[in-house]
């Protein structure tokens, strides 16, 4: 049975986006290695999910009262069905785009992707999925003290996916707005081409 790859982009910059170019290169690498991969694509900037309200949650979310929003339920179902998830994630104002955050609000669902056990311990229910993030940052975060206070994209995504049982992989292009765009993109594309197969 063929595996499913869910490809998400969230940059608002269209063809000028570094994260979109890198996420596309990741998908190209994985599908070249396994042509049987079924790819589902979602452009979160072109077709955004609304900000979270109880009525806009998936029907599977307790807040929805069992009603929920069809598009939100589809987003959750796509994630649950995927074996591999590739996320194009630019850093905007030190965090992830609101479009990506809205999608994350749809996949963090009690009883579906995480559960609280005895004593309040969290169990991630999405174990076994492979998540690869193409992260683009305008500045450089090599200084750990600066990164600790200013970097809220990679750290956030590591935590979010870890919360539901997944250890994400990252391919990072940084310094894009600081005169390193071409070098950063070239290095990230090289990393994408060297990615291990699915």
From TrEMBL:
InterPro entries: Flavodoxin_fold, Flavoprotein-like_sf, FMN-dep_NADH:Q_OxRdtase_AzoR1, NADH:quinone_OxRdtase_FMN_depd
Residues engaged in binding FMN: 11, 17-19, 91-94
Cofactor: FMN
Residue ranges constituting the Flavodoxin-like fold domain according to the UniProt record: 3-194
Domain of life assignment: Bacteria
First-level EC class: oxidoreductase
UniProtKB keywords: Flavoprotein, FMN, NAD, Oxidoreductase
Keyword Oxidoreductase among record annotations: yes
EC number: 1.6.5.-, 1.7.1.17
Reaction catalysed by this enzyme: 2 a quinone + NADH + H(+) = 2 a 1,4-benzosemiquinone + NAD(+); N,N-dimethyl-1,4-phenylenediamine + anthranilate + 2 NAD(+) = 2-(4-dimethylaminophenyl)diazenylbenzoate + 2 NADH + 2 H(+)
Co-factor remark: Binds 1 FMN per subunit.
GO molecular function: oxidoreductase activity
UniProt similarity note: Belongs to the azoreductase type 1 family.
HAMAP family for the chain: Azoreductase_type1
Complex formation: Homodimer.
Function: Also exhibits azoreductase activity. Catalyzes the reductive cleavage of the azo bond in aromatic azo compounds to the corresponding amines. Quinone reductase that provides resistance to thiol-specific stress caused by electrophilic quinones.
Protein name (database record): FMN dependent NADH:quinone oxidoreductase
Organism: Ancylobacter polymorphus
């Amino acid at each position: 049975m063929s595996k499913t790859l869910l490809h998400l982009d969230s940059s608002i910059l269209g063809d000028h986006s570094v994260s979109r170019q890198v996420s596309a290169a990741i998908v190209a690498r994985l599908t070249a290695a396994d042509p049987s991969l079924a790819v589902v694509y979602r452009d979160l900037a072109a077709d955004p999910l609304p900000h979270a309200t109880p009525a806009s949650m998936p029907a599977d979310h307790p807040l929805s009262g069992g009603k929920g929003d069809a598009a939100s339920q589809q987003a959750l179902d796509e994630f649950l069905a995927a074996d591999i998830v590739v996320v194009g994630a630019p850093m905007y104002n030190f965090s992830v785009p609101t479009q990506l955050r809205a999608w994350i609000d749809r996949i963090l669902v009690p009883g579906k992707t995480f559960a609280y056990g005895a004593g309040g311990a969290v169990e991630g229910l999405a174990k076994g999925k492979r998540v690869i993030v193409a992260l683009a940052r305008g500045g450089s975060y090599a200084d750990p003290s600066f990164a600790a206070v200013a970097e809220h994209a990679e750290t956030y995504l590591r935590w979010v996916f870890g919360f539901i049982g997944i250890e994400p992989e990252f391919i990072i292009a940084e310094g894009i707005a600081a005169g390193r765009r071409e070098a950063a993109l070239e290095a990230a594309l090289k990393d994408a081409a060297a990615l291990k197969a699915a």
